[in-house]
Fold this sequence. Notes:
Blueprint: E1 3-8, H1 18-21, H2 25-29, E2 38-42, H3 44-52, E3 57-62, H4 67-75, E4 83-88, H5 91-98, E5 107-111, H6 118-121, E6 127-132, H7 137-149, E7 154-157, H8 167-172, E8 182-184, H9 191-197, E9 201-205, E10 212-213, H10 214-219, E11 225-230, H11 238-243, E12 246-249, H12 261-271
Parallel strand pairs: 1-4, 3-4, 6-7, 6-11, 7-8, 9-11, 9-12, 10-12
Antiparallel strand pairs: 2-5, 3-5
Helix pairs in contact: 3-4, 7-12
Amino acid sequence: MPRPELQPVTSPDDERLTDYVSLTDVELRSKLEPSKGLYIAESSTVLGRALASGHRPRSVLLAPRWVPDLERMLAALPSDDVVVPVYVADEPVLEAITGFHVHRGALAAMHRPPALPVETVLAGARRVAVLEDIVDHTNVGAAMRACAAFGLDAVLITPRCADPLYRRSVRVSMGTVFQVPWTRIDPWPSGLDLLRSLGFVTASLALTDDSISLDVLAANPPDKLALILGAEGDGLKPSTIAGSDLVVRIPMAGGVDSLNVASAAAVAFWATRVPDTMG
């Protein structure tokens, strides 16, 4: 197992804490180089899911009472001889470092895994989500959580979409960003042709005159389906809608014509789920 090396911290100005104090998400991503950047995992739940998915910590920052939990999490990992610095600080010092009360356990600076090719991520997949240009990190995190909850096999994000490993996305997803394989699809929307070549029927969620009801799609779904969702406000690009095999709308009552993108994702994913893939 990775070996924790406990190191006491008494000051928020400690130079060992640069990853937690001085760097934005963008700077963390490119601190070493884009393929070897970092991201921050907040809470013991998120850290546990990250570790279980094979992600490895560069360091951990926590209060003394969370040390036993961390040691249990590390003990469950495959054996290796990597030393993980564990910075241990009292609650007032942690709050001065992070700017908020760290009541959910640990924070960790995690090594960002390399991005995988689209073909690798989609190998064997039957249900896929494409998140197009969703720039709100909260919505990305909530959509990723819906993907995990409703059994999607993979997620593709377009070049302008917010990063699922930004700390707010990770936090909102409750760490489920580590459960569903994902990668960027670039270029886009020409990537629709790649999806089609891999056997996927592409379905854009949008309001158009020729859209079909989600009920119709759910009654006879294709074996391999890619559901495409866009940002609130602007919605999907006209070229994405035009290039899709289907345009699908969610039937609604009460004069409502649209949902938050994460809510729409949850509805569409549940309606088109593969039978027997959920408990």
